[in-house]
Amino acid sequence: MYGFGLLKFERKKKYIDKLKAEGKFENFKKKKVADELRRKAKIRAGLELLPKAARNKTIRSNLAYNSRKVAEHRQHKKLVSLPETTHNGNGSSIIEFRVNSQTVEQFLQIMKPLTTSTRQVTRSSAKEKFAGKGLTEKKSKKAQSMLRIHKTKAREVIDSTMSLVKMSSKNMKDVMKMQQPSNSDGIRSISVILDHRSSNDSAFEEADIVHPSNQIGRSVLLPDYQSPNNSVSQNLNFTVEGNFIESEEILPEYEPANNSVAEVSGRVTKRKKRNDRKWRKDITCQTEEEVLSIIRSEDIWSKLTKSSSNKGERVFYLCNKIKSKAKVQCDSGPCVLYNNDSASVTILRSANNHNHDDLIEKLFRPINEETGITIKNLLTEGYHRKEILNELFNRKLDVPSKTQLNNFIARVNDEKYGKSRIKLSELFKFLEGNSRVPEESNKPFVLDSTISDPDKTDILFGFFVSSKKLLENAIGKKLIAVDST
């Protein structure tokens, strides 16, 4: 419902009737068709500039959007809902029902004064909707359902008796909760508390809210409730017929998940596994030097981090058999505790055993022979790094990490083109081996070289490479182009 009290299709119909009365409807239709063709031409020209994958993705999303808009248009035009049970993008079920014109008119007569008063109080724009919505929840979490009223759609209640729902208007909040059943025939009451921030109106008048189930709920004013910002609250009891929870508890109490996987409204989110260590007291020393000498003598620990506690400052150490930047670390490790109540220093040991051998085998597994041959063949065919990873995945081979792939490609290039770095001793051998004049005219050779004293710290060297043909071309020339590096 919009702020002007009219729905979108009602305003559109009124505008079309006005154009027909003035005789401008045909020109309006032609202009609309021309604008649509011009818009499609621009989209088509823009899609041709995109890559193939992005172009196909854009086309699929546009088709899905258009089909959804067509379905909504048919629903509003015929005042009937979509098929009985559908699924939205998040996988939750939506229970639909038919809405006749008489019910909509009764509903609009009640909602118009409330919408008008809301617009006057909060100065909301025409795009802000009224928030009178129903809520339902099935017993199964995987098939949570919602009821849809004309132009309004209910939200799901997740993991709590109270659910805060932020609406499009900045000055209005909805607090929705389920109440106990009013009778035993499966009908529940939904309470919606509307918080209108205003200092002018003291309250709204009582009104009957008519729902498609032909049940009527009387609005009850809450005189005792007053928000800090001089806001007025109103409790509207909606009675809606639907498939509700059969047990006495309408909504489950919130329980924090103890596992590494938590279910929220049918979705599964993975949580990072927490490494809980159990500490046992090992040695107590009088000075810090004694403790550090013990830690250094074991030659396996690296300092990780510090933390403060009630007993004193704690310094944690890490097993250095695995790099500190690795995602998974060894479970074993000591902790040095600097006691607050005394000058002594205590070494605490973790009850977990070393597991770095298994982690090294899992994390730093080398590339096998079959995968290496495939990577070499793909490199010769001109594949890039990302394309190589995708091709290995499609062929169901072991996919290495990006670092492993980069190192493997660097080794292959060194074998094929030679090393990118050269030592000074290797440079001496190169100059001696290529200083002779070859018989071929196009074969390069070292014409001259100079090297400073090797005993000095800063060694300067230079060499000049040419060929017989280049020297012949240079004879008698006044200008010669020479490349230097």
What topology emerges from the helices and strands here?
Blueprint: H1 8-22, H2 25-49, H3 52-78, E1 85-87, E2 93-95, H4 101-122, E3 148-149, E4 152-153, E5 162-166, E6 172-178, E7 187-197, E8 208-210, E9 216-218, E10 220-221, E11 231-241, E12 261-264, E13 267-270, E14 279-285, H5 288-298, E15 301-308, E16 312-319, E17 334-339, E18 345-350, H6 356-363, H7 369-380, H8 385-394, H9 402-417, H10 424-433, E19 445-451, E20 461-466, H11 468-474
Antiparallel strand pairs: 1-2, 3-4, 5-6, 6-7, 7-11, 8-9, 10-11, 12-13, 14-18, 15-16, 16-17, 17-18, 19-20
Question: What would you say this structure looks like, in words?
Answer:
The chain has 485 residues and is an alpha+beta fold. The protein folds into five domains: 8-78, no CATH class; 93-241, no CATH class; 279-354, no CATH class; 365-417; 424-474, no CATH class. Helix content is 34%, strand content 22%. The protein has a five-stranded antiparallel β-sheet with strand order 5-6-7-11-10, with helices on one face. Strand 3 and strand 4 form a beta hairpin. The model is unreliable at 80-99 and 116-269 (pLDDT under 50).
